[in-house]
Amino acid sequence: MKCIYLLFLTLFFVPLHAQQVVVISGICKDASNGETLLGANVELVSTIYGTTSNDYGFYSLSIPAQDSGTIRCSYLGYDAQEYRLPLMANQKLQIRLNPGSSSLQEVVVTANSNQERMLSTKMSVERITVQQAKLIPALFGEVDIIKTIQLKPGINSGTEGSSGLFVRGGNLDQNLIILDEAVVYNANHLFGFFSTFNADAIKDVQVFKGGFPAEYGGRLSSVIDVQLKDGNNQKFAGSGGLGLIASRLTLEGPIQKDKSSFIISGRRTYVDLFTRAINKSNKDNPESTPIPNYNFYDLNAKLNFQLGEKDRLFFSGYLGQDVFKFEDNAFDFDFNWGNTTATARWNHIFSNKLFSNTTATFSDYQYTIANRVTGFSFKLDSKIRDYRLKTDFDYALNPKHSLNMGLEMTYHEFTVGRIKAGTDNGDISFSAGQLLDGIEYAAYVADEWTATEKLKISTGLRLSAFSNEGQFYARPEPRIAARYLLDERWSLKASYAKMNQYIHLVSNSGISLPTDIWYPSTKNVKPESSDQFALGVNYLLGKGFLLNHEVYYKHYSNLIDFVDHAQLFANDDLEQEFSFGKGYAYGTEFSIEKNEGKLTGWIGYTLAWVKRGEFSFMDGRYFSPRYDRRHNLTVVAMYQWNKRISTSATFIFGNGDKGWLPAGRFAFQDVPGGQFQPVVPVYGDRNTFQMPDYHRLDLGIVIKFFPKWGESDLTISVYNAYSRRNAFFIYLAPEYASGNENPVLEVPERIAAKQVTLFPILPSLTYNFKF
Amino acid sequence: MNLYKTSLFALFVIGLSACNLNREVDIDLPNYESQPVVECYLTPGSTYKLTLTKSNSYFDPFGNGDLLQYLDAIQIKNARVEIRHGLDTIVLANTPTLDPVTLKAYNYVSDQMVPFDFEGSFELYIQLEDGREITGLTNILAAIPIDSVVVSFNETDTLARTLCYITDPDLSTRQYFRRFLNYDSLDSIPEQDFITDDQLIESGQFVFGSGYENRVQDTVFNTIATIDKAYFSFITSVMNSAASNGNPFAQPGVIKSNVFGSAKPLGIFTGYAQSQIMTIIAK
Question: Which pTM does this prediction carry?
Fold first, then answer.
């Protein structure tokens, strides 16, 4: 570890040579709608000097002064622009790229070209576009960015249909999911079958699996950075769709052309409309039992204002809720959960070298369960709420060094399992719950250094800290990444990143549930931390193919798990249910991608191992977590036949999840009054059983229409095309001669292992439009 | 219009139901070595009795399905079973017995009564035929009396429910309870069977209620047992283990026994004192 720090210090404080340079700076935008372009490549042609636009479209390219040169800006899916300029003085160059004239512009599977990816020091990163997600077949036809991420190497999906992410052996809570820089704590609807992100409102998604830039922290395993669209500042436009279970509508347009714009986007499910109608019609029927009503909705909105050449303001927000309601004469049950986020952001260009972004965000996730029977009421709620202030600076120091730095502070409020219950007359009352808080701090500085024509090194240091009830933790987090070009086609990469996590998800189900609660680091609950090393190679095969191969090793400390039979609800002393241990994960990821031409897609393969151990249970021995899958293969192929028709296919293969099934059983008499149980399972070591292998083929076809008012399409998806009966879970069912499932004083004849499959073949149809 | 909406919903429900596919599969479970299983509940005023059986691998055959034959097959015979209390050593004889009232089976019994001693400890010592040993230690906690059982009728119906009140004598010490609600007789399947503690109580008074499901002349047994931490942990682990099978959201766990020794046993050795009120529903 000391070597890493020394290396970091050596690289970071390398002398910066003064040179006579000029700076070309500006904003990269889409000429058709004014959306800023993130990660656009800006370079001085035929030299090593180049840069990419930052997350707000700003770029600053420092180059040696010269009589003239050609600045080229490219972005996949757009026509590249070249500008022949005198380069003797600093200048501003606002770049407007036109969407590619080729009909293939929709088939852009990554925002970055293969060339850019090969040249970048970034590794273990994926950039995903909405176009890509829209072409890939989706469960119930609901386009889902998170499920597209699951198809990337190194990322496991959790249970069938779930939008949970398990990245390089990490847990569900080790993913930092941010929407316009505000943290989204539970990015799921309907127990994880759908994510909270409405694809129509999204501009860009970046996923970091390792080699984390210093600006990110707070989670151990991944960063999923989702950016909302800014809104079309050229003309009023709309888009939407009608699906099997939900509909959506997005409207956007200029408030003042070129200077300000808005976007508002909504999505809602329908099922409750039918259930309400049925309940209403059965209202007077005493034999009828009401059907529970359920729906979820998402609402995104954003405003942005260009205040002169140097300032830009953004305001965005998200509101999403799942609503479950059941009521009859004597019994009311309400279960609501959801996220709210708000972001206010100010971009300021201090000079052609210095750009700043200052952000204030608000995040809230809460759930409430309210139950009322005659004379008695019960309410359970939990919440996490963040107030975050953050400022970042990008500084193009000279042609070889580009710095970024920043500060952030987050105030967390936790309401942990607050229960209030009792009789209406107040005779009886129960209560539980904890109110906790904590402040998370971070400061970082990073440098991207073009050391030689072949060697590029990114170094960074993040100092993170957390305070809670007099307990203060402060941890340095060094980050380093390097790229070495072997020749025009080969590049070698290496990275190291340390991460700390100060807030933790209290859940032992292994899948995301709305009742999951978050808990801060305290005196007894130390911050979790990870160290990740990765080595990689990129090879540009030509004809749009990029080969990527990475190996990684990741070590975890202070991991949190739960003792057997942990009581996670209604427990004022939750910490006694925690157990602390270590873990490691290693593996190799291989992918070959093609992102240009009529046929696009990728093949990804992951070979991985994950272990956890040194917990108080299982005598400290190491064991496999649930999602320790040895082999994972994904094949994604999209083919554009012509302007109107494109087809796609996705094939997934993975070893089965680990399961914890009983090894033995005993007969239990119980006390008088208790029920005799002939079969009580005896569970041994955790997760020694492996579920059957998982595989699935999805097919899709998009047929486009071009009416006078705009564009529309019919998207037909077939999920699980050959109706593979994949195991959602396996249980052991005693079978009795009487045929009863729960007989009295009867012994089973036998025990059968039963496999439950969630989704057989599922066709779906979605109609989409835009104008 | 209603028919149209109902049909649409029916189609939707049928579609979702079709997703729930279930089939039998062949699987291999981890190897398992049989363990002795002890159940002994010391109830003041009742005789000493204990059940000593052996566990099986999960897929082991059950025999022909006859309960008594099965119990005979799994019982451990010829063990020396002693319970020591103060200066007394009570030897439990290997005599299979079925309680005709509670329908509980025991294979080690004594004629001696468990004393109403809520201070002294009780020690269990078992030596199996092959020499392996099992030990245990417990106390008996005094039962908290039931304050009252109140019958209330639904305003809009003829059905009634019972509300069973108890008062926690000491909120500063964590107390654990097991609650049963039986209808008609004590050997019926309990309508309610759960464990709780007084961690959440604010007012010092508990109420355990039933649903509106009793008619006039129905017999209702409300039972509250005061249990210790070891039994609370054991019965929690038994209930959770049973409930985890088939629940993808649940986390199983090991059985938390309070018996130990070279025989590597499972089970519980505990005092068990309860308060019980029988109520016949009347207007």
Answer: 0.86
